[in-house]
Each structure stands twice: as structure tokens, then as C-alpha cells.
Specification:
about 50% helix, about 0% strand, elongated
């Protein structure tokens, strides 16, 4: 199995843990990608490789990169919330801690129009009121200041994701699972 891009590999790997894994414990063994061919006429077992890539990226990426990817692209609720809580203290900002935490959360869980009450229960959907920056800053700083703070927090997080994807690409290239680098 090869992925068409780093982002598709990351998204697929992060989604792997949300699938029913009752029969997928074999990924914990040391595997060779050639042995992941399971009775489909030489077609790799996508779920097995997704789980393997998940484990590989989790073990090889530095924690802030792993958490940035999990917060931005993860679908597992608990892992996403954990990643948000681990990223927020890493953000250097003149904004109050509550503001930074809420800005990180809003970045990781963007507001979806029409999503309240209409989405799957497997998806984190925050109430629309959460995205009101007036509730993020108890000192009532000017809106211009709050927008600047939010933009700066988002820029730091976007840079973390960019770095994380670059490191993930190097890992996946070395493993030969990217389409452009497959043997």
C-alpha cells in the first residue's frame, strides 16, 4: 500500500484508530510491508498499513509535531482533546491562558456551519457560542487585540503542522510508502 501524499497518509493513519479494531491487533508485531498482503491477490491490507503508519509516526515524530497533527487531523475524540491540552501550553503569547486554550481548541475544531445537532455523535461539535472571542478574554481587551492574538496562535499552530508534515514525509519516504517514492 502506498499513499498519494503525506497528508493522505497522516489522515488515513489518524482515522485508523477510530475503526473497529477487534481483529486488528497484529499491527503491534514488527511487520514488513510485504507481509501485509492479506489474501487479496497481492493487494495490501489498508487497515493494517494505516495502523502501522500510525504507530510509526507516533513513535518517530517529536511530541509537539504528533500533537499538532492529532489536533488538526485526528478523528478520535479523546486523542484530539489530549492533543489540544498538550499544545496550548507550548504557545508563547501575551494573551491570557484561557484565550490561548480556546484559540487552540477553535483551530483544532473549526466551526462548521449548520453542524449543531446535525452531525454524527462521533464528531466533536462545539456550540456556536464557543467561537465568540468575547468569552475568551475576561479582561475585555479590544477586539483588534484579540484578533491579533488569535491570528498569532493560529500561525504558530499552522507552522507546527507544516513542520510535522515535513518530518512525516521524511519518515514515510524512508519507509517507501509514498506513491512518488515507492519501489
Amino acid at each position: 500500500m502506498v499513499y498519494s501524499s503525506v497528508l493522505s497518509a497522516v489522515v488515513s493513519a489518524l482515522a485508523a484508530e477510530c475503526k473497529d479494531s477487534t481483529s486488528r491487533q497484529a499491527w503491534q508485531k514488527l511487520i514488513d510491508l510485504d507481509t501485509a498482503m492479506v489474501g487479496r491477490g497481492g493487494v495490501p491490507d489498508r487497515d493494517l498499513i494505516d495502523c502501522w503508519v500510525f504507530a510509526r509516526l507516533h513513535s518517530e515524530l517529536i511530541p509537539r509535531h504528533w500533537h499538532a497533527l492529532a489536533a488538526r487531523y485526528g478523528t478520535h475524540k479523546a486523542r484530539k482533546v489530549d492533543a489540544i491540552s498538550r499544545l496550548a501550553p507550548l504557545i508563547a503569547s501575551p494573551a491570557p491562558k484561557l484565550f490561548v486554550y480556546k484559540a487552540v481548541t477553535a483551530w483544532a475544531i473549526p466551526q462548521l456551519k449548520g453542524a449543531e445537532g446535525k452531525r454524527s455523535s462521533d464528531m466533536i461539535v462545539l456550540p456556536a457560542a464557543f467561537y465568540d472571542m468575547n468569552t475568551w478574554d475576561l479582561a475585555a481587551n479590544p477586539e483588534r487585540t484579540r484578533r491579533r492574538w488569535r491570528q498569532a496562535v493560529g500561525a504558530v499552530l499552522d507552522e507546527m503542522v507544516k513542520e510535522a508534515l515535513q518530518h512525516a514525509e521524511a519518515i514515510l519516504q524512508a519507509e517507501g510508502v509514498l506513491l512518488s517514492h515507492a519501489a
